[in-house]
Amino acid sequence: HQAIDQIVLLNLDKRPDRLQQIREELALLHIPPEKITRLAASEDENGQRGRRQSHLQALRLAQQHGWQNYLLLEDDAVILKQEKHIQVLNTLLASLAKIP
């Protein structure tokens, strides 16, 4: 997780249970809490529009903080723990570190 400046969690205000769950999952991966930022997800009758607004808010937040690489997770993300998935993720992160 050194190649990632920050993890941004999109979380609906009405779903603190999901926020707690994903924070616990990330803690098991030894992600320091200070590397995690919660962003209130936008609610909209049109779910796609709400997601788009939330993702744009996350991008603006990253730009404001100067994060070069950030990981955007929705609060219902499933974190896979099988070795093959971890290897693929590590390869991806290593390649991110090489991008200027």
From TrEMBL:
The protein, known as: Glycosyltransferase family 2 protein
The organism of origin for this protein: Escherichia coli
